[in-house]
Every structure is written in structure tokens, then in C-alpha cells.
């Protein structure tokens, strides 16, 4: 009997946050070549840099700092793409694009979507970090 796939481990179950579409854990396995220490290190780095990017987005919006919001969304988009966090990548890309052209006052909903997508990815990666 085989165990669950990496995508299934991403959290598609009753009461568990995240869905296989949120994070492709096969991508993480690919870039770490199965090295558990490297996997944990990449997850830690992603979570720390993601928190910094979210803080930049949150502090940039009330100060109408379009450049800060755009840069943070771009950073988060790239990190999410590298880690296989597709929902977060899409949300961050939408915020990055909008932050270049839309009125800054209209970006709050997109910023919330990014924060929610990051929270989902964080939950999945924190579970993944605990695996041996």
C-alpha cells in the first residue's frame, strides 16, 4: 500500500486548512532532493521573508507607499513560485500588478487576499516542516 502523495499532504482533508491547489509539495521535494534539513531551512526562510513582505505591504498601504507595496508583492510572488505556493503566487501577482496602476486605496482587498493565501501556505509548510 502506498502513502499519500505530496499533493495530498498539502492539507486537503476535513477541517484542515489548505488544499492541494494551494501548495505543490512535490515542488518542494524537487528543489530539496529529499534533504530534510534543506527542506526545513527553505521553509523557515520562506516563512520569515514572507512575514517581512506582509509587514511591508501592511505598512505601505496606509502611507500610500506604492513602491513598497509593489516590491513586497513582487518578492512574495517570486518566493511563492519557488516554493510551489500557487494560490499565494497568484494573489501576490494580482497585488503587484494593481499596485502599479490602481489607486492605492483600492488595494486593501487584494492585500487581504495575499495575507490569507500566506496564512494557508504557512499552515501547510509548518506541517511539512514537522515531517522527518
The count of DSSP E runs of length 2 or more, i.e. the number of strands, is 0
Spans where pLDDT lies below 50 across 5 or more residues? 1-17
Give the biggest beta sheet: none
Q: Total number of helical segments?
A: 5
Please give the CATH class. Answer: Mainly Alpha
Architecture per CATH nomenclature, i.e. the level-2 architecture? Up-down Bundle
Which sequence of SSEs, written as H and E, runs from N to C?
HHHHH
Q: What is the terminal-to-terminal distance?
A: 20 Å
CATH homologous superfamily title: HPT domain
- Structural class of the helix and strand makeup? mainly alpha
Using only CA atoms, what is the Rg? 15 Å
Task: Report helical residue fraction.
Answer: 55-70%
The overall pLDDT, averaged over residues, is 87
Shape: elongated
Total number of domains: 1
In CATH, the topology is named: Four Helix Bundle (Hemerythrin (Met), subunit A)
Beta fraction: under 5%
Task: Please provide a written account of the structure.
There is one protein chain. This protein has 132 residues and is mostly helical. The protein has a single domain, classed as Up-down Bundle (Four Helix Bundle (Hemerythrin (Met), subunit A)), CATH 1.20.120.160. The protein is 68% helix and 0% strand. The chain has helices at residues 25-32, 36-60, 66-83, 86-101, 108-130. Helix 1 crosses helix 2 and helix 2 (36-60) packs antiparallel against helix 5 (108-130). The longest helix is centred in the middle third of the chain and has 25 residues, at 36-60. Residues 1-17 have low confidence and may be disordered.
Amino acid at each position: 500500500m502506498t502513502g499519500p502523495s505530496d499533493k495530498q499532504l498539502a492539507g486537503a482533508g476535513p477541517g484542515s486548512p489548505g488544499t492541494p491547489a494551494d501548495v505543490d509539495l512535490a515542488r518542494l521535494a524537487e528543489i530539496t532532493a529529499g534533504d530534510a534539513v534543506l527542506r526545513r531551512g527553505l521553509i523557515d526562510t520562506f516563512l520569515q521573508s514572507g512575514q517581512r513582505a506582509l509587514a511591508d505591504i501592511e505598512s505601505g498601504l496606509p502611507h500610500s507607499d506604492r513602491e513598497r507595496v509593489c516590491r513586497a508583492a513582487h518578492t512574495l510572488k517570486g518566493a511563492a513560485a519557488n516554493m510551489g505556493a500557487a494560490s499565494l503566487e497568484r494573489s501576490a501577482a494580482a497585488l503587484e500588478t494593481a499596485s502599479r496602476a490602481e489607486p492605492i486605496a483600492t488595494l486593501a482587498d487584494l492585500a487581504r487576499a495575499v495575507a490569507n493565501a500566506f496564512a494557508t501556505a504557512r499552515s501547510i509548510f509548518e506541517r511539512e516542516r514537522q515531517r522527518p
